[in-house]
Automatic annotation (TrEMBL):
Origin species: Streptomyces virginiae
Top-level taxon of the source organism: Bacteria
Name of the protein in question: Carbonic anhydrase
Biological role: Catalyzes the reversible hydration of carbon dioxide to form bicarbonate.
Family designation: Belongs to the beta-class carbonic anhydrase family.
PANTHER family in the record: CARBONIC ANHYDRASE, CARBONIC ANHYDRASE 2
Length: 226
C-alpha cells in the first residue's frame, strides 16, 4: 500500500506537462476512490487540471446537489492552512461531497482539528489524509519571527506559534529558514497525526495513508513532502 502511495506521490513530485484525464469521479458513492492510492491519484489529477487552467469544476451540478442531500462520501481529508490563496477544493479541482476539509492557520492541530479528522477517517471511512502546507505561509513566518525574539502574539495566536516552533531549523536564516520550517511543519503535523492510535491502526491495516504535501503559489503545483 505504502509503495503504491509512494508511486502516485512520485507523480505528484515529478508532475507532467500533459493534462491528466482521469475518469470523472462523480457525486455518488459508487464511483468514489476507495483506496489511499486511488484517492491520491484523483487529487494529483485535479491539481494537474488546476495548474494548467483546465479545471472541470466537478460535482457542482443540480443533480449532484440533489444527490448529496441523502448523504456524503468524501474520498479524502485535507488538513490545510486558512490562507485564502489555498482553498483545497480549488487547487485539487474538486466539488461538493468530494473533500472533507479542515483548516487551521499553519495546519496546526488541536482537539477540534483532531476530532474533525477522526470523524472523516473513523466515521466516514475516508482512506486518505493530506496535510497541505504552502509556500509563503504567514503562520509559519510569524512563528519564525517569534522564535527570533519577536513579541508575544496577541490572543490565541500565540498557541499557533508555540505549535509550529519545533519545526524551525535554527541553523538556517531568513527566507530559507521560513521555507524549511513550512516543509518541516508539514512533516511534524503528519507524524503527530499518524501517531494517533486509531490512525496508526488504520495505516497498519492498509486502509489509510497520511501524507504531507506543499502547495507552491508560484507554480500552483502540489508536491508530496517525504
Ligand atoms: Zn498558511
Amino acid at each position: 500500500m505504502l509503495t503504491g502511495v509512494a508511486a502516485v506521490g512520485a507523480g505528484l513530485v515529478a508532475g507532467s506537462s500533459h493534462v491528466p484525464m482521469a475518469p470523472r469521479i462523480g457525486g455518488g458513492a459508487g464511483s468514489r476512490p476507495t483506496t489511499p492510492e486511488s484517492a491520491l491519484r484523483a487529487l494529483v489529477a485535479g491539481n494537474g487540471r488546476w495548474r494548467t487552467y483546465h479545471e472541470r469544476h466537478p460535482d457542482q451540478t443540480r443533480t449532484v446537489r440533489r444527490t448529496l442531500v441523502a448523504g456524503q462520501h468524501p474520498f479524502a481529508v485535507v488538513l490545510g492552512c486558512v490562507d485564502s490563496r489555498v482553498p483545497p477544493e480549488l487547487v485539487f479541482d474538486q466539488g461538493l461531497g468530494d473533500l472533507l476539509t479542515v483548516r487551521s492557520a499553519g495546519e496546526v492541530l488541536d482537539e477540534a482539528v483532531l476530532g474533525s479528522i477522526a470523524y472523516g477517517v473513523l466515521e466516514l471511512r475516508i482512506p486518505l489524509v493530506v496535510i497541505l502546507g504552502h509556500q509563503s505561509c504567514g503562520a509559519v513566518a510569524a512563528a519564525v519571527r517569534a522564535a527570533e525574539g519577536g513579541p508575544r502574539l496577541p490572543g490565541h495566536m500565540q498557541y499557533l506559534v508555540d505549535q509550529i516552533r519545533p519545526a524551525i531549523d535554527r541553523g538556517l536564516r531568513g527566507a530559507a529558514r521560513i521555507d524549511a520550517a513550512i516543509t518541516a511543519n508539514v512533516r511534524l503535523v503528519r507524524e503527530r497525526l499518524a501517531a494517533e492510535p486509531e490512525m496508526a491502526a488504520k495505516v497498519a491495516a492498509g486502509a489509510l495513508a497520511v501524507v504531507g504535501a506543499r502547495y507552491e503559489l508560484t507554480s500552483q503545483r502540489v508536491r508530496l513532502v517525504r
